[in-house]
Protein: 4-diphosphocytidyl-2-C-methyl-D-erythritol kinase
Organism: Desulfomicrobium apsheronum
Amino acid sequence: MSTVWKLRAGCKVNLYLDIVGVREDGYHEIESLFYPLPAPCDILDVHLSDGQGLRLSCTASDLGTEENILSRAYQRFAETTGFAPGVSVHLHKNIPMGAGLGGGSSDAAAFLSWLNARAGDHALARGDLAGLALTLGADVPFFLGNAPAWVTGIGEKLEPVACDLADYTLLVVCPAVHVNTRWAYRRWDEMRANGSVRPRKELTPENSPIMSLCFTKPPKLWNGFEEVVFHEFPALYEVKKQILNHFPDACVMSGSGSSFVALFSSVECANRCAGAMRAMGHACHASRSGEPLGLNS
Ligand SMILES: C[C@@](CO)(OP(=O)(O)O)[C@H](O)COP(=O)(O)OP(=O)(O)OC[C@H]1O[C@@H](n2ccc(N)nc2=O)[C@H](O)[C@@H]1O
Ligand SMILES: Nc1ncnc2c1ncn2[C@@H]1O[C@H](COP(=O)(O)OP(=O)(O)O)[C@@H](O)[C@H]1O
């Protein structure tokens, strides 16, 4: 029986996300604080097999194997390095898709790291692996290091940051709403063109009512996608208000949505919030000091 590796692919939340520019190729420049979380997380059961090529299966029926990012990661790595072993992967998909949690990117980074660790003389240097990762997705380079980072460029410039949230319970609330990242960026462009959204540094109490509320209490967390996504999905704005009713120290939508992350210094408040969210049908995942935290809802 060959060795089976169990790779855990956690998720990320954006504690700050501002869109600060658009490149010629249509990709957007961002300034964002990426923070890794252990829950929800995907599991990749990987084992080497005879011959060459990837055999992929996945628990998510709506995620075919051809368009799965893991297939593209294997293909890209084989083309770049010539290392194309026989590999079987069974993906236990737990991170909701289109949730702003980087689930696909995390899977790809976990698999690329595993391939590179076994590639021997074909292995890529760190920078080259990050460059390959970027071709799979803007969030993939972050997951290679999987540590709190200030992210700029389109997602390829990473600066490690000391971001100690050990005093907080982090609660991820996942409404069953799929937000397409590409749509969110295009919609941001349209709203930017008509002046209804601006990069945060251009906001003043005069040109943004929401900021006039915040300037007295500068927002600890910020996500420039909220106005875009709440405009299209008002139900998500309601979810955020429901979370705020449980007195988190801070709460923000993650990435292009639809998930939220809330920081609670009180575990009791986090528990109550999780119970209320689950009663409304929203999956919840908690963690504290980098470890998953079971919540009695
Ligand atoms: C919004 C963010 C914030 O962390 O994450 P998610 O909400 O997806 O988790 C990222 O910028 C998403 O990264 P990722 O999800 O890897 O995006 P990709 O698959 O590379 O790109 C999907 C589409 O989004 C647009 N895109 C993506 C990244 C970027 N910096 N500018 C863009 O304009 C492009 O149209 C691209 O075709
Ligand atoms: N292994 C995978 N896990 C999740 N999504 C995948 C995967 N492979 C391909 N995808 C595609 O990537 C899209 C974005 O998924 P994901 O990265 O989880 O969301 P987000 O970009 O909101 O963080 C999904 O809607 C799906 O179509």
About this structure: Residues 215-219 have pLDDT under 50 and may be disordered. DSSP finds nine helices and eleven strands in the chain.
